[in-house]
Amino acid sequence: MAINDLKKDLAPITSNTMADIVEVRIREYLKRMSLKPGDSLPKETDLAEALGVSRNVVREALSRLRMLGMVETRKRKGMVLASPDILQAFERVLDPLIIDDATLKDIFELRLVLEMGLADLLYARKTDKDIEELEAIANSEIDKDKFFLIKNEIAFHGKLYEMTGNTTLRRFQIMLMPVFAYVTALVDKPKSGKIDHRGLVDILKNGTKENFKKGMYEHLRPHFDHL
Amino acid sequence: MAINDLKKDLAPITSNTMADIVEVRIREYLKRMSLKPGDSLPKETDLAEALGVSRNVVREALSRLRMLGMVETRKRKGMVLASPDILQAFERVLDPLIIDDATLKDIFELRLVLEMGLADLLYARKTDKDIEELEAIANSEIDKDKFFLIKNEIAFHGKLYEMTGNTTLRRFQIMLMPVFAYVTALVDKPKSGKIDHRGLVDILKNGTKENFKKGMYEHLRPHFDHL
DNA sequence: TTGTCCTATATGTACTACATATAACCAAAT
DNA sequence: ATTTGGTTATATGTAGTACATATAGGACAA
């Protein structure tokens, strides 16, 4: 028991490896030089010599930056700074099975927040064609088995995000989905608010933004009640 | 000009290096074995032999997983699976200067969506003490210079996120802040909606959740109008 | 401008070697 | 029985060498 109390006060010593340090140093270097995408970087051997470490270490650090999409390396040319895909790194880590429960809960709530905040973008950008498609999804739900419904649930909410015209947001949602599914499966209450998908489509067609916000809240209500 | 158009449609061929492949293979391995945090993994030399690559390559792959916090390596013991900090990877990449414009715009909107969706969590969790503190921040804004106001803007909205009791959300906001600041600085319209911080506090004290949502929309309105 | 050949060179990969921290084991001590 | 201390085997951390390979860039030709 006392050991756990200790752990809170005394964080374990984490000796940074050379690769850790070099990674930071290189990142600092990129920032300090205010390099822009496309600019080329020194070659590995030069970096190694300048930093006073083996090329091995430099490569480990670069391997990380490469994974994040910050730099690209090409034979003979050397390295060039690239525009990283900010969600790429995220995707690799977001496995419900290895995330701790507190974070899992946070992410669950994060999705609720996103979904509640969607309305403004939605009403600014929705088109008749979008709504038609959305309606088709909602209508296909009638008299279907549970498995189909889950698939449709994903399709419907996915379409909503898509309608915002915000690619990053949409990808973000796709990433968060497994977490959401995992958590709801855990709680395993068969949940559906007073307003279903068809209800939301109706509002989208005829109602105001405020109507939609209220509708979405009712739709997600079981989740909110569970907070 | 034509070259840039081409780049969008024809992504350059990216030959996967061994490290890329090994990274995926190890990740698959972790998943397939359904390992839980704390479980130990084979040692580097065994992995290298099993995969038929040099230890070097394995170390590059592991270096990436270590950076993401997925695994921890300890001398003699080998590696153990860890609970990754999902935002850690994010933080490294989220530099407004190296993110492309489209994504920058997406992230800007993402923050708007978050802020609009905050209300439900906020009303579920806010305490009197929170509101007091928030009010103090809002009141300290009177008759201050521009620099102070920017600092205060951050403090105020930060406090809102904090009040949700959602750590991940709060950290997320902290990360998004530089992007938001960068984009607004770019647009450089001195923006402030009809409702200011003190107005929001008033609603939080006496108004309903719906009032708050409308208030927040008005507060952020200049940004929405700019969509 | 387009196509072909050539070459220098930076990355990609493999292998060896050794330092170092430490988990695991055992023994002594309280 | 639990703690303390010393020893050792071992997996990681780092360095260094070597070589294969793709290719940027130049020269030249059509």
Helix content of chain A: 55-70%
Spell out the helices and strands of chain A N to C. Answer: HHEHHEEHHHHHHH
By oligomeric state, this entry counts as: homodimer
* Average pLDDT level of chain A: 87
CA-atom Rg of chain A in angstroms: 24 Å
User: What about the largest sheet of chain A?
Assistant: 3 strands, antiparallel
User: What strand line-up does the widest sheet of chain A have?
Assistant: 1-3-2
State the end-to-end CA separation of chain A: 30 Å
Number of strands of chain A: 3
Can you tell me the overall shape of chain A? elongated
**Total helix count of chain A?**
11
Question: What is the beta-strand fraction of chain A?
Answer: under 5%
Category from helices, strands and their pairing of chain A: mainly alpha
Structure write-up:
The structure is a homodimer of 227-residue chains. By secondary structure, chain A is mainly alpha-helical. Chain A is 68% helix and 4% strand. The first copy, chain A, has helices spanning 2-9, 18-32, 44-51, 55-67, 86-93, 101-125, 128-139, 146-163, 167-187, 197-206, 209-225, and strands spanning 40-41, 71-74, 78-81. A 3-stranded antiparallel β-sheet of chain A has the order 1-3-2. In chain A, helix 3 (44-51) packs across helix 4 and helix 8 runs antiparallel to helix 9. The longest helix of chain A has 25 residues, at 101-125. The radius of gyration of chain A is 24 Å and the shape is elongated. The model of chain A has no long low-confidence stretch (mean pLDDT 87). At the A-B interface, helix 2, helix 4, helix 5, helix 6 and helix 9 of A face helix 2, helix 4, helix 5, helix 6 and helix 9 of B. Chain A binds a DNA duplex (30 and 30 nucleotides) through helix 4.
